Amino acid sequence: MTEAQESVGDLVASEIQEAQAINNGTSDQRLDHLRRAQELIIHHDPSGSLLDNFLDEMLEFMIDSDAKIRCFVVGFILEACKKEMELIKKMGSNLLFMLSDQSQNVSVTKKVINVATLLYPLLLSWMSKQKNPDQETELAWENFAVLKGRVLHQIESENEGIRTQTFKFLESCILAQTPKTAQSEGSKADSMSLDQVPRDHRFISYRKLDLEAKQYIDSLLQQLSAAHISSLNLLTVISCLTNIARQRPEYMEKVLLAFETLHVNLPPTLGTSQVKSVRKELKMHLLRLLKHEASSPFHPQITTLLTDLGASQQEVLRALPSDSELKRRMRRPGESADVGAPQRKRAKAKEASTSQVVVEADDDQEDDDASAADSETKRTQSAIDITGQYLYDKLTAKNVADLVLVSMAMLPDEMPPNFQSSYTPIAAAGTEAQIRHLSRMMATQFTAQGVGPGVEQGKREAREKYLERQSAKMEGAVMPPTPAHISASSGESSMAPPPPPPAKPPGPLYGVQGQQKASKRLIQFGLAHITRPMQPEERSRMIQFAFEHIINSEKRALQGGGATAHQKLMVRLACRFAPGPLTSSFEDLLLTFIMADQKSRSDLAILWVYETYAQFQGFTQLATAAEEQDRYDRYGRCLCRLLETLFERGEHKETLFHKILLEAPHITPDALLCLKRACLDKVYGAFGMTTLREMILTRPRQRSELLCVLLDFSYYERPDLKTQSLETAKELFQLDWIRPDVKEFVGTLLENVLRPQPPPVLFGEEQGRPVRMMVWDEHTIRACLYLYLNLLPLDHSLIQKLAEVYALANTEVKKVIFRVLEAP
Amino acid sequence: MGRLKLAVSCSSNMNRSMEAHSFLAKKGFNVQSFGSGNQVKLPGPSPDRPNVYEFNSATYNDIYNDLVMKDKTLYTQNGLLHMLDRNRRIKESPQKFQTCEDRFDVIICLEERVYDQILEDLQTRESVDGQSVHVINMDIQDNHEEATIGALFVCDLCTRLEACEDLDNEIDEVLTDFESKCNRNILHTICFY
Questions:
Q1: Which of A229, A285, A613, A667 could be joined to A242 by an S-S link, Cβ 3.0–4.6 Å?
Q2: Do B130 and B159 belong together in one domain?
Q3: Where is the Symplekin/Pta1 N-terminal domain (chain A) (predicted)?
Q4: Which pLDDT does position A304 carry in this prediction?
């Protein structure tokens, strides 16, 4: 540290000591010392090292018995944070502590709230700029959130001063948590607004801040209609709201509406002069608001309100911006003194058209203003307007006279102070403008009480919208809106019951007109209504398309890793529908698909076979329960189709054919026939045989059938078949578990010889003996014997059989047997 | 709780506010006085020929001498010189409220127009730190008798305000009582620095 710094440090130390030491000195003196110390630390030391050094000492005064000193410490915290924002990490908890000050001293609490008001925008700004906030920063943010919560709780405090400070805090929060727009009044260059918060901050949620801000504003607006608010706090709230309206013009409409309602609904607890103060203040704020550029759509409203508050023509004129249409019109001679004149034109234009009026380039300024005012009125088709219109129609001279007479009976004997101060003699009574104005004021009252056609309309619309949404949700036509969606598109009103509070217009924020709303509703209804049931052809066509599409998306499914699912899907779709035209087309499609690329789609084929089998067996329960026989048929059909198609395409040599046969759970007779045909094929019969052999070996249940097929080949004339069959038979004969079957077959075959005529089974195209013969001849006898002879060397017990047969055979047969036996 | 920082204001910082200032200062209050008009205006030989001076440049002494020079008899007769003499014993020159940077707890305005001007000023200022200030108005006619009576009332009001433990909380009540006692209309609001 340099010398200068050292000496400053010494000074600070001495000041603090003085402050600590004077225990029986006046608090003012101690405060002086502390102030000097603060001055030195904060303003005389650019490096901040003094702050670091003396922070803890200064914070010790937090628990001082004197409230002023404690207040001072709170102020010091603010100054320190302004100088060095990082310190908030340490001091957040201090603030919280001081808020719940032990002795409950009001001034300390107020000071804390005040400091929080100033600190919050700075804190938010600093935190949102942090690119990589650390744990401590996050903790500090949470601490501050707790502080915020506690402060906001004070809004219900009994102490008026605390409430005042809380309103200011609310204002600060709202301004910091709402985005700035182009029309925002340019306040300090470094003032915080929501658009400075990044959307992807680690622990600050943009959305949450936005929602909170909206809640705060509503809370503030509600204060205006509270019955027991004190005059001071009412004034505070009014000034806060005006400030917010200027800096965040999107809320201007809401604020103005609230002011209108307030004007006719002042809290009954106010005294005469308080009422006067409030009205004066309101007038002042409104005059200033006229100057704001964003208020120009509301000028007629504001000027009417001002006139009610007692503003003179001159004052209003002065306050209007120089290029205002309204001003020009008001200045023109010959107009009535009442500023509400545009309403007259408005009435005419209103009757003329019901849709949104485009401001035409008209020479006549009057019409310009009227239509501009007209479109403005249309835009805010609020409950108040509807009720106002309704009342306007009803306020005939007769009705008004009746009303006055009736209410005279209810008037008190003395004019209440409220009335006396706010009573301004009505100029131009009975003019159309005045009637309109009156009806609007009554409408405000009605709406505030929740009666009247406007409110009912609002309720109806809200209810209808809700029902629509529900029905649309049922139909799946509308996605339930996310909370963000709701708050973005329908700021103040929500679509769900209960209906929105009557003070606020029920329409969406972007001001859709009544008619547009109706057509919007129609659109939503339409969707639910125009869907009519599809025609069956259309339906099946669509289903077909869908299936084809699924089939064609195999590649994508593979890429996406959903190959299994894809296969399953296709197979199930093909299998599970009840037999019908649709199903067969599915099956055809699937078949074609499989055939197109056998190698890669063999799994699909197998899956299909298995699926049908599973259905047959009842492994998969189907909604369309078919008879067992039907299911079996289906399975068989499926299997056969595959095999036959393959065979017809000449692809039975391909693996798929054989794979199916080998892997199918059950071989139907038709399938067996297919196989047989395959075996008979001149070129590729060998494959068939091999498959057959495999099947015999692997399928115990169907072995006999398969054996029959195989061994049948043994008496065929074709040498290759015969040879193959015999070879295989020989092989199989050597397997113990097959031998008995083979033996039996052989025996049967031999006994055929004993029959008077050759059995028909020997004959046929396939066997090579096209013509059926009635008599045994050598060939036929030989045919029966081939197998036997083949097997004889392997098992000598067969000789016995032969001997038996020989004994019973006729001469011809005996001769053949001998001859055959001789040839080794 | 400590002395309130008071301010009283009329339009020229000559008659009513200085009378109140004098009373309050004698009673030991921490008080300053101001004018909120554009210029310091004193009655001249006729109503349409007032004496006009600029704030913060002409001292009471200067004005005194100026009036002496113009028409000593007239101004002695209507009491202006006496008033200026009293004024220059209290402070040096008229102060304009709008240019003053001090902060107060309570500002008392002595005419509705003054009230409007001061509010206008306070509300158009950039808000700095949100410290609150109460602005109260009590109408006093601009002549010597009324100024004196008015000053007494102001004094009474300030005594009551100082006696409050918690000003913000109790000021409403105090003002209502006071109103009914002196039978004058009081306007009251709160502004933020």
A1: A285
A2: yes
A3: 106-323
A4: 84
Greater pLDDT, B159 or A585? B159
For residues A703-728, give the mean pLDDT: 74
Q: Which helix (H) or strand (E) holds B44?
A: strand B40-46
Range of the domain at B61: 40-90
- Chain B nearest-CA distance from A236, in A, is 7
B27 and B45 in a single domain? The answer is no
Residues B113 and B161 in one domain: yes
ipTM over 0.95: no
Q: What is the pLDDT of residues A171-217, one digit of tens each?
A: 888 888 888 877 666 555 557 777 777 777 778 888 888 888 888 98
Instruction: Work out the number of other CB atoms within 10 angstroms of the CB of residue A176.
Output: 22
Best of B172, B175, B178, B193 to mutate (most A CBs within 10 Å, chain A): B172
| Interchain contact B132–A (C-beta under 8 A) | yes
> Are residues A272 and B185, on separate chains, in Cβ contact within 8 Å?
yes
Rounded to 10°, the helix A598-617/A628-648 angle is 160
Indicate the residue among B60, B90, B120 that finishes a domain: B90
Shared-domain flag, residues B75 and B141: no
Instruction: Provide the CATH number for the domain around residue B130.
Output: 3.40.50.2300
* DSSP code, position B126: P
Contact B192 A168 (CB under 8 A): yes
DSSP state of A411: -
The number of domains in chain B is: 2
Would you call B123 an interface residue with chain A, using a CB distance cutoff of 8 Å?
yes
Average pLDDT of chain A is: 72
**Residues B17 and B102 grouped into a single domain:** yes
Listed residue (A26, A99, A109) closest to A66, CA to CA = A26
Which has more confidence, A116 or A535?
Answer: A116
Instruction: Show residues of chain B in contact with A232, CB under 8 Å.
Output: 168, 171-172, 188-190
Phi, psi of A624 (to 5 degrees): -90, 90
Enumerate the residues of chain A whose CB falls inside 8 A of the CB of residue B189: 232, 235, 277, 280-281
Residues B176 and B102 in one domain: yes
Distance of CA B40 to the CA centre of its chain: 13
State the smallest CA–CA distance between residue B168 and chain A in angstroms: 5
Looking at the fold, whether B76 and B103 belong to one and the same domain comes out as no
pTM over 0.80: no
- Residues B14 and B59 placed together within one structural domain of the fold: no
Question: Where are the alpha helices (H) located in A130-230, listed in sequence order?
Answer: 135-153, 160-176, 206-224
